[in-house]
Design brief:
Layout (H helix, E strand, L loop, with lengths): L2 E8 L4 E2 L4 H6 L8 E2 L25 E8 L2 E8 L17 E6 L5 E4 L2 E4 L2 E5 L5 E8 L12 E5 L19 E4 L2 E7 L8 E8 L3 E2 L7 E6 L4 E5 L17 E11 L2 E11 L2
Parallel strand pairs: 3-11
Antiparallel strand pairs: 1-14, 2-17, 4-5, 5-9, 6-7, 6-10, 8-9, 10-11, 12-13, 13-14, 15-18, 16-17, 16-18, 18-19
Length: 272
Amino acid sequence: MKKWIGSAIVYLLLVIGGYSAYAFFAGDNTDSTHENASHGGHEEEGHGEHEEDHDSHDDSDVKAAVELEEDKLTVTLTDQSGNAMDDLKVNHEKLMHLIVISEDLEKFQHLHPEKIEPGMFEAQADLEDSMYAAFVDITPAEGSYETKPVSVMVGQHGDHEEKHAQLKPETSWTKEQNGYKVTLNADNFSVKENVVLTFDIEGGEPENYLGALGHVVVVDEALEEFIHVHPREGEEPVFEAHFTQPGMYKLWAEFKLNGEVYAFPYVLEITE
């Protein structure tokens, strides 16, 4: 068994989505929610469906919509005039990262939709019936873009029971998957200081995954704030992070170990 210790200083610039939990999950004119009967952020910013309204980014030059058909998620990008837009910069080896998280914060997927036609990207997704928040993480070559949550309903609305997360403080900082143990250590979780995180990995050494040795995704309890962080270049995954608001957050640390990617979840309680 090898033990790899990666010391990381993580700077997390949290982008406040500005949606209330009800508006986000019930779906209104700020989000687009797609119902399917058969199945029912930038490195330091968060990015993100009602069928008749897919305009979810009024503040951005680029608008993103997400729809589910059977087992495929389709992301459509348009400019302010409604024209197809796909002039994107490659961000950690991909044009698009799509983070999909269930409303109870138990299910997490990091997908990479591929371009299928101008302004349209598609990815396979194996999603159980639930309400999800989809975050479209892109870097436009020109213009502004802010990642915001887009709600995606899997299953029938009438059969859906809301299961919003009520996070509780972490009881164990060691998580295990497939024989790998990852322990998160931190000196503090305060908005007043930069947070220093140390991941101790037992059972393997992290491999390069999408141009980095690790990725971190963080959301708040209400799925309104989102950040997707990549480490600096170097021998170790080093991040810089600072929280601006106290509260409960869910963090997933992604590492590639022996050719397979694992996401290790942690609950963070950020204090003043």
